[in-house]
Amino acid sequence: MLKIHKKDKVMVMSGKDKGKIGEIVKVFPDKMRVLVSQVNIVSKHKKGTQTDPGGIQKYEAPISYSKVMLMCPKCEKPSRVGLERLPSGDNVRICRRCEQQIE
User: What domains can you pick out in the chain, each with its CATH number?
Assistant: First the structure.
């Protein structure tokens, strides 16, 4: 189970995009990878067709789950994520830095 979800705000901790902040667009739990907006932009050469002109197209590629860290909405800093069980039986994510619940 991954502790970060779609629409979470994350910071890239290593690699060519270190320090960039973006929102998770898609999660690939079987490959342990995430797609983050405006991060890991790669170029692909595409051959033209009758309807599309060819050329170099840029798009976002997935990066490893271990390279990103969740930005806590309360303290606005990257932090580790913990899980806590409520008395009602539900699991919630908590920020390890400020101990606040993450929605």
Answer: 9-48+57-102 (2.30.30.30)
